[in-house]
Design a protein that fits this description.
CATH class of the largest domain in chain A: Alpha Beta
CATH architecture of the largest domain in chain B: 2-Layer Sandwich
Distance between the termini of chain B: 82 Å
Largest interface: A-B, 47 and 37 residues
Structural class of chain A: alpha/beta
Strand order of the largest sheet of chain B: 11-12-13-10-4-14
Helix content of chain B: 10-25%
Largest sheet of chain A: 7 strands, mixed
Number of strands of chain A: 18
Low-confidence stretches of chain A: 1-6
Distance between the termini of chain A: 24 Å
CATH superfamily of the largest domain in chain A: FAD/NAD(P)-binding domain
Number of strands of chain B: 20
Strand content of chain B: 25-35%
Mean pLDDT of chain B: 93
Helix content of chain A: 25-40%
Shape of chain B: globular
Oligomer: heterodimer
Largest sheet of chain B: 6 strands, mixed
CATH class of the largest domain in chain B: Alpha Beta
Shape of chain A: globular
Mean pLDDT of chain A: 92
Chain lengths: ~525, ~425
């Protein structure tokens, strides 16, 4: 054995995604000798910036920062390490009649724009916003707690349940009732209770279906609307927007902070398996055969990889194996990244203007999105997909050569389980459908394309390792949240194997560049005294 | 995965000579903008309900304020929201919504009224003009179309938002009647306080109401937006010999504090926007108990207001007069003479009694007319009696101090001519 192979760490983190990096930073901050192992040449997982086309930098997968926890920004001193979030101010929804629906940073301008379509909705928005603010305030503490198991009598679980009960009581009856509706209804039904202008409902509902294999009329999607408003609560902190240099720069900032606390980060170092001896994790074996021993092993990978790929199943109880096998990934979205010679000209809002500094949402009606889902439900990609489009080079000029641009198109639906499977030809057909749909609203787009990168869920899985290409490391559906994420009894970042922990987005609360899973896991490790 | 080809030369829209700003969020301008804009000498604009309006036309508002109290001021109040409510059940709709008795409002009469949610907390306040037996005009600070529609369920009534097509101009001040009478066809001597007449001014058809937001003699003119500029020109021409002066919001703000008139979002938070219960106010807590009908039938918030009347409200809305000697002493300690705000302030300042916080002031100003430093404040009910000696948090040369302040009866300024 080489000296390096026999080196011993307090903690080895498998996977240098942003949650793994956050966990490593917190462990190193507490004085643990920590090593992060990343399979790819760069850290970040799904939050990476890559120059796929020379001169053009793409936030290849995840493209905006929404819910990065303010406490992480403070604890890890991220602004000093390069966190620099630029405002993403507007959303424009082109309508099928040639008009548009816009929302701007300025409340007066947004209200006036809404009044143009429905004065009642403009008024309803004020009270809807207030209610959602309350709902988000109600849910926010849950994001910051280790899920207690409601079926357990362990003191820590009971204490957590008590806290939760007290918190629920403090909400007041009206808010508990509203929260119950939000947790059970479809986003379409929920929005119907408030609004009349269909494109407004469609654009809001779209945020409820991202990353799930559900449509706006599927029950349970209303809850995901909240995520948007949770970002707004921390609005004063301005943690929502576009990271300078792309989302990879956030990963780099967290990595830099982790290193400053003493963590070691190794790229091009894929882990083949976790060593288990007498029901305890003792280290890892790298793909190159090197062995690294550690007091604890923390997996930042998704639950399927954490439980079924990295360890021999013989170490796990059958019910846990079954639970993980039942955990739903069902990647439903794809991504198209474009290098452009200039800016797209949208028919609904011709010319160049402030609209290019914000998002374009292709969500002209609820029916449009539901039909897009219908295609996917039966195994096809949407012929007319929902798309969330941003032009990062308009916000950070460093992303593309002067005068030229990069465009990020988030596309839904593209089912992982495509009829006949994904092939190169199917991928390009999917890319063509996206460009064709976009060209209906911005006809000059095709003439601007210098290069394109099309990513299907199969590509996302192949490159990042996220099972079935699910961008949230498992669907953010109610049956997979809180004390059921990823499986019952093991939502507390532990596993049935002693000293083997989980910290990825497949644990509570998961989803987006939040870092909350990594932080909560690290705090729980430190609290447990595991060394 | 490269596809397509550079197309820079072929696409003129890539490098437009001048970027077109299409759909850019801009503030709206009022129908009087062509006349008011050239007068705003120091670019002192502000926003009001999504419109840009003048804070002041001159660099300082002193002359504009003086016109309100001494001659006549012309104030663009077009950003008010305005609704026409008509139909057989128009009065029933408004009676269901507001706290005053609309059924008892005569044709040609104007009512000032707040309106509440089901818990008796104020949503907004404004005026109701009875234009005919079955037609009313409602003004409000915030949009209320949805609220009207929710209250109109089951009623035979139509609601039309006329905010954009109806311009509104306030002519306020002791000489306002003399100026307006030179142009108006109707006899203004017979137009009483809070009454309204449909007539012409310089042959422009409009409605004149004997109302205002200054606590002075004054009128508000309601005219089709297309005629707004012509009306402005006629008033300026006829009023110049009388010293008519366009006045901005800064001048209006001082006048309305002297008159003890509340402002939404400054002195209270709408029940539709309040995030916590502490931000809510009932009409009784806003010194508007007089505007809560004791006789009329069910309306939004009635049972809550009845219960509150029986139990006495927890808060009162009062006038405060900051004691000059106290202020002078605080400044003298720092070797300075008292420094006074040049315009009204709209921040919140804690109010104490004997070292314990008993409330907060929401707006205040130096009254050039009364030569007093005035504030409007919410105080806990036990401390609201006229003459109560409180203290107000003031900043004196980077240090927080407490100046003596005495509770005064509102309005601070209440001239005979206001009601004449």
């Amino acid at each position: 054995m080489t000296a390096r192979a026999s080196s011993r760490y307090d903690a080895v983190v498998v996977g240098g995604g942003h949650n793994g990096l956050v966990a490593a930073a917190y462990l190193a901050r507490a004085g643990r000798r920590t090593l992060v192992l990343e399979r790819r040449p760069m850290v970040g997982g799904a939050a990476v910036t890559e120059e796929i086309i020379p001169g053009f930098k793409f936030s290849v997968f995840s493209y905006v920062v929404s819910l990065l926890r303010p406490e992480i920004i403070r604890d890890l001193d991220l602004p000093r390490h390069g966190l620099h979030i630029l405002p993403l101010e507007s959303t424009v929804t082109p309508l099928d009649n040639g008009d548009y629906l816009a929302s701007w940073a300025d409340p007066d301008a947004t209200r006036r724009e809404l009044e143009r379509h429905s004065p009642r909705d403009a008024e309803a928005a004020v009270q809807f916003g207030r209610l959602m603010h309350h709902m988000a305030m109600a849910v926010r503490p849950i994001l910051g707690m280790v899920p207690p198991d409601p079926a357990s009598l362990a003191p820590s679980d009971l204490a957590g349940l008590l806290r939760l009960g007290r918190h629920t009581r403090s909400l007041g009856a009206a808010h508990v009732h509203a929260l119950y509706k939000l947790m059970t209804m479809s986003s379409a039904d929920y929005l119907d209770e408030w609004y009349e202008f269909d494109p407004l409902k469609a654009t809001k509902a779209a945020s409820g279906i991202i990353g799930t294999f559900m449509g706006p009329r599927s029950p349970g999607t209303a809850y995901v609307l909240l995520h948007h408003y949770m970002g707004e609560i921390d609005g004063a902190f301005r943690a929502w927007g576009f990271q300078k240099g792309g989302t990879g720069a956030i990963s780099d900032a967290i990595a830099s902070s982790a290193r400053a606390f003493g963590a070691e980060i190794r790229a091009d170092a894929g882990v083949e398996r976790v060593l288990v001896r007498d029901g305890r994790a003792t280290g890892v074996v790298l793909l190159n055969g090197d062995e690294i021993s550690a007091s604890i092993v923390v997996s930042g990978l998704d639950p399927r990889r954490t439980f079924l790929d990295l360890v021999d199943r013989v170490h796990l109880p059958p019910d846990v194996i079954q639970g993980v096998e039942r955990y739903k990934f069902r990647g439903s979205s794809g991504k198209v990244n474009l290098a452009l010679s200039g800016l797209p000209d949208f028919t609904c809002m011709p010319g160049v203007g402030p609209q290019h500094r914000g998002a374009f949402s292709i969500s002209p009606s609820l029916d449009y999105i539901e039909r897009a889902y219908d295609d996917a439900k039966y195994g096809d990609f949407s012929r007319n997909p929902y798309m969330d489009i941003v032009i990062p080079s308009m916000i950070d000029p460093g992303m593309a050569p002067p005068g030229q641009h990069v465009m990020s198109i988030f596309v839904q639906y593209a089912p992982y389980h495509l009829n006949g499977g994904w092939t190169d030809a199917r991928r390009e057909a999917f890319g063509d459908a996206v460009i064709r749909t976009l060209a209906r609203y911005a006809p000059n787009i095709e003439s601007l394309i210098l290069g394109r990168q099309v990513l299907t869920p199969a590509d996302i899985e192949r490159i990042t390792g996220l099972s079935e290409g699910n961008i949230f490391a498992g669907e953010l559906a109610l049956h997979q949240l809180f004390f059921l994420r990823p499986v019952a009894r093991w939502a507390n970042y532990r596993t049935p194997i002693q000293d083997y922990w989980q910290c990825g987005a497949g644990t509570h609360p998961g989803g987006g560049i939040m870092g909350a899973s990594g932080r909560l896991a690290a705090l729980e490790i430190l609290r447990s005294g595991a060394r | 995965m490269l596809a397509g080809a550079p197309a820079a030369a072929a696409a003129p829209w890539l490098f437009p000579a001048r970027p077109r700003s299409f759909g850019a969020p801009m503030l709206k301008s009022t129908p009087f903008h062509p006349r008011t804009a050239p007068l705003v000498r120091a670019q002192t604009w502000r926003r009001w309900a999504g419109y840009q309006v003048a804070s002041a036309y001159e660099p300082l508002p002193d002359h504009e304020y003086a016109a309100i109290r001494n001659a006549a001021a012309l104030i663009d109040v077009s950003p008010l929201h305005k609704y026409i409510i008509s139909g057989p059940h128009a009065a029933r709709l408004l009676d269901r919504m507001v706290t005053r008795d609309v059924a008892a409002c005569a044709v040609g009469q104007v009512l000032y009224t707040p309106w509440c949610d089901a818990h008796g907390k104020v949503i907004d306040d404004g005026t109701i003009s009875r234009l005919s037996d079955s037609t009313f005009r409602l003004t409000s600070a915030e949009p209320n179309l949805r609220w009207l529609a929710m209250n109109a369920v089951g009623l035979d009534v139509s609601v039309e938002d006329v905010s954009e097509r109806l311009a509104a101009l306030a002519l306020q001040g002791p000489l306002s009647r003399a100026i307006l009478q030179r142009l108006a066809a109707a006899d203004l001597a017979t137009l009483r306080y809070f009454r309204l007449v449909h007539t012409t001014v310089d042959n422009i058809p409009l409605a004149i109401s004997r109302t205002g937001y200054t606590g002075d003699l004054g009128y508000e003119l309601w005219v089709d937006a297309a005629q707004a500029v012509a009306l402005w020109d006629a008033l300026i021409a006829a009023g110049t010999p009388y010293g008519i002066t366009p006045a901005g919001i800064w001048a209006l703000d001082v006048a309305r504090i002297e008159a003890g008139l509340i402002m939404l979002d400054v002195d209270y938070v709408s029940a539709h926007r309040a995030v916590i219960d502490d931000q809510l106010s009932s009409p009784l807590e806003l010194n508007l108990g007089w505007a809560v009908s004791k006789r009329k039938g069910p309306y939004n918030g009635r049972s809550a207001l009845r219960a509150e009347e029986a139990a006495d409200p927890g808060w009162a809305f009062v006038g405060l007069e900051v004691q000059w000697e106290s202020l002078e002493r605080l400044y003298a300690e720092r070797g300075l003479s008292p420094h006074l705000p040049t315009v009204a302030w709209r921040t919140s300042a804690p109010v104490y009694r004997g070292g314990v916080q008993v409330g907060y002031a929401t707006s205040g100003c130096w009254s050039p007319l009364l030569k007093k430093y005035l504030a409007l404040a919410h105080v806990r009910a036990p401390h609201c009696e006229v003459g109560a000696e409180l203290t107000l948090d003031v900043m004196v040369e980077h240090r927080r101090k407490r100046a003596a302040a005495v509770v005064r009866k509102l309005p601070f300024f209440d001239p005979e001519r206001k009601r004449s």
